[in-house]
Amino acid sequence: MYSHSQDIAYARSIIDTLSSPSFDGRGYVNDGDNKAASFIAGEFCKFRLKSFSRDYFQAYTFPMNTFPGKVEATINGKPLKAGEQFQVWSAAPTINSLFKLEELKGKNITDPKRFKRFVARNHAGKFVMVDKKGITDKHLLSRLDSLKYTNFLNASGLIFISDQKLVWSVMAGQQARNYAVLDIRREATPKKPRNIALDIQSSFVRVHEARNVIGYVSGKVQPDTFLVFSAHFDHLGRMGNTVYYPGANDNASGTSMVLDLARYYSQPVNQPYYSMIFLCFSGEEAGLLGSTYCAEHPIFPLKQVKFLLNIDMVGTGSEGITMVNATIFKDAYRRMVKINADNEYLMAVKERGESCNSDHCPFYKQGVPAAFIYSMGKEFTEYHNPDDKSSLLPLSEYKDIFRLVRDFMDGMKGQDKR
Ligand SMILES: [Zn+2]
Q: Which of 131, 275, 325, 397 is the most exposed place for a label (fewest CB within 10 A)?
């Protein structure tokens, strides 16, 4: 039994579960994303949410290059730590060999003649290590970045030296190339790099079956009008059999809030005025694929959606939240700011303009009033790395963000009586 509107223990337990190793980073290896979809549907079931079809699922497919097996790199005979010291580009092929290393840095980049000479050399069978340190010329930098896609050196592979914590990402539909690209942390590279041994197994999955999870609570007064809470539950999955990306903040946090809201509104005493839809997307990390599919193949009439609020990364909050599309939906933004001030929930509700950076975007493109909120704060900055885990995620303002979005949606009623 619970009488309080929300209970952070529930959110924490959901985040713990979704970011645990058994969900494989909610990606494509071991069907991690589908394990998460089934788990979320189980929660919907507990709350007795209604469904628009015979179950809560909306299925679709996309192609994805994956790393289900070994991902190992050894430089000058010293093994590197996957995920932390090195990462492979999501379009890397299967590769198992030793390669000579060549360095591309300093004057070989900045002196046009020397750069030309370097490019003209034969790099076949070698890996070129690109060090952008000290390069400020934008044109040169973008030339070097384009190497990743064009491999104009015709090398067997490329290595980019990174001075920052590594940030991994995935992309749908990219078949493995015939060359590999790696990012390696500077401190993991030797003074005189000679060779690199790689053992990388990649597997291109032509048809990955993914599912969105969709449920709703009927409105008490106007059930044919919908308010929508959405969040993506997928993450990056695995980069090899030893590294997985927990994605606690991105976006087990938002998923837990949507489930928590579903739990709240499913209690008879909290039955909403309008119908309330709870939309959990897959395929976000692969390019907003789940939300795009859902917006283009809607299973509820989009014209009847009064507002969609997307929640993506809400594990912090010491500096408040930001609302994307605030400058488009000014009334909604002003109301959010007022509710926040009246209740002294958060430090700030900052405004931001249009940005197609999360799952609100495909709906916004279809004409649905939609905004996206994320939390801000320096108390947690892990992003797309193996440290985005529940044990480190503070959930500083979880409760107040929950209250704010709940009050915001509840305040939608009467907005149409003008
Ligand atoms: Zn992400």
A: 131
